[in-house]
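Bump. Still looking for Lipoprotein structure tokens.
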Amino acid sequence: MKKGWKYLIGIVVVVVIVIAGYFSFGDKSQAKEKTITVGVVAPADKDTHVWDAVKKEAKDKYGLTVKLKEFSDWNQPNKAVANGELDVNSFQTKEFLDDWNKAHDNTLTSVGQTIIAPLRLYSKKVDSVADIKNGATITIANDAVNESRGLKLLQNAGLIKLKSDDSLATTKDIAENPKNLKIKEVDGSQTARALSSEDASVVNGGFAVSGNIPLKYTLYKEKLDKNSKPYINVLAVSKKKKDSQAFKNLVKAYQSKSVKKEIKKQYNSLIIPGWDLDLD
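Sorry for the wait, here they are.
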């Protein structure tokens, strides 16, 4: 009888340990799933306010904790996601992501759209495009995607003419340059600072915000139409994790009415919500 009781007690102890271990492991996995880290590039105070709205929406509606990891330039966040050091990043256009994947033989994937930041041509030295002098220097971003986008902006402003609009353009594709402009390529993060030394600069909306560039220095603004779709920013993740519920909830949180309202409040027209634009 005693042996039977000991045997039964032994079985109960084993079962309890197994169950406790299962739920302990499950709780940790669930906790990890409910906390994600988003990589962002050089966020300004306005960006932080928008992400605070995202965090609140994610936490209140989906029980998802969102943390931010800051990077200083565009070169690092994709590598961090690809290496598994980061869950998701939010800093780039779909076109930039596609170009990075091609250059690095990778498959990072967009799980949702965020904002669009129209390019603007700014100057502190002249008041209009027509006032730009012969031989003037204009800075543009030096990465392939934003260099092409900047050159197309200059073309639409009537300053240069490109050989073709069909592919990523470089300065070698300039067919006509009637004012003999000097196109200076710099890191995207330096385009706002270049306004202090150069005649004009093409600046992305994000860097215009972080650089506190007043709208009064705008000479020309990028038009939004069907050709602007590749310029909408995205949330990028590893392809193998794209179906994670945490990422789906992050997208829903970002694309909420409260976040849309905060974007409009913080950025005015420098940056606008990109997920529900009618660009057709």
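The chain is about 40% helix and 20% strand.

Edit: fixed formatting.
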